[in-house]
Amino acid sequence: MAQDSVGLSSDYQFWIQKLSVWKQASTLETQQDTCLYLPQFQEFLRQMYEALKEMDSNTVIERFPTIGQLLAKTCRNPFILAYDESQKILIWCLCCLINKDPQNSGESQLNSWTRGLLSRILAAFRSDIKEVDLFTQGLGYAPADYYPGLLKNMVLSLVSELRENHLNGFNTQSRMAPERVRSLSRVCVPLVTLPDFEPLVEALLTYHGQEPQEVLWPEFFGAVNEAFLLKKICLPVSAVLCLWLRHLPSLEKAVLHLFEKLVSSERNCLRRIECFMKDSLLPEAACHPAIFRVVDEMFRYALLETEGAPEVLAAMQVFTRCFVEALEKENQQPKFALKTYFPYASPSLVMVLLQRPKDIPQGLWHRPLKRISEMLKEIVEDETQGSSGGPFENWFLLAHFGGWADIAAEQLLTSVGDAEPPEALLWLLAFSSSPGDGPQQRAQTMVEVKAVLSHLGRLLRSPTLSAGNLLAAAEESREGDPRPPACQQLTRRLLLNFLLWAPGGRAMARDVITLVSLPFPASCLSLTAQVEDGAD
Known about the structure:
Elements: H1 2-22, H2 28-52, H3 57-63, H4 67-75, H5 78-82, H6 86-97, H7 105-122, H8 130-138, H9 143-168, H10 178-188, H11 198-205, H12 218-229, H13 237-246, H14 248-264, H15 270-280, H16 282-285, H17 289-305, H18 310-330, H19 338-341, H20 347-353, H21 366-381, H22 391-400, H23 403-414, H24 423-433, H25 439-461, H26 467-475, H27 485-501, H28 509-515, H29 524-535
Helix pairs in contact: 1-2, 1-4, 2-6, 6-7, 9-11, 12-14, 13-14, 14-15, 15-18, 21-24, 23-24, 23-27, 24-25, 25-26, 25-27, 26-27, 26-28, 27-29
């Protein structure tokens, strides 16, 4: 608590100096500096309120002798009053200074002064000019009707001017000067969360002049993006697309914000992840290749940093599915070639992976699976195929469409004991679980998977099925030795699939999941949910 107090006192001195410099934000330099610090100053006001509400007015004056100067200067700054919740928090701070039962003239004077500041704030956005009042009364308008209408007309006028600016193109006589557009974006920084200004914010985002460099103020993009991510404003997809295309830091922050929501959520089933994805608008915006490539690259880094964490893989697969749905909805006539989204991948392989299993009869699933496996094997094991990327690039592509690997596992299990497992499906599973293995290691993994399938086949034919027997199938190799880690994860993947359809499998699901100690692959997140639902 003492450390917080020292920190607040230090911040107090910093901000009172800043307010003295800003004064009434009357120059371009002070306006720029004010807008730059608005979020931090609002947070300071919030901390100040938390401290003031615990004190009486005498303690406040003793602790902060210049509190009157700070609050008075804040009240005179229109940028601060217009920004987000600053005006509301400032009113809270002033209310803390009012003594409900003043004991002396000093406390009474403080009450009177404080009420004066409160009146100033509440009237800050009213044009109480005598001449204007007489004019509006002559027109038959009350101020309560006139001023909102005046603001609305001003915003619509600016929006119309910006749109005409876009249509006029090189007709410089009819165009708004770039300096004015930039100044307008700067003025809007503290106003972006006000509903009346949303049309102007949208018009600025979609404005495209002929200038070689970005004309809008960077802090404007940052303020709009922050407000959008925190659901303080509503913007159409077209405006959000312009925002992220024109300001890369805003796009990166939007992706990181999505990651934070996924990580902080207590339990993420695939439906919940899908809701987060669609709510973020990232899949729709990713229909533009430039945005898709940035989001995809951030997923790549997240996978590398987390060593292929199942949660990241699951999120990427849901994102890809939502992106493909948005692409199909938007592109009746494709605007961009698939190569622009997956530049390092074989176009024919991408086309096969893009097929949705639900659109293919279940009895024919083996055909695309065989094709995917053969194409990947040819690319990965033929070193002359350098143009289509190495093993990791192709695994990363396959990971986007993880449903095909799940179906390969399901196909192997549903035909267990009937015939020899297809080599193509075994290779596809081995590659998806450990893309860095060489041909010999992958062949050994395929042998281990065959042994697991054989064991599961025997269990399926036995009269009783127990969790212990299933774990034995998961942990013993053909030679009786523990399996390598990559084989263990793949085995657990098969085990969970087996529990879904084997008679009595769901009844023992909780016991098996509890006993399995290693983390599941990403594809098992959905299987685990199905198993637990069935067990309930």
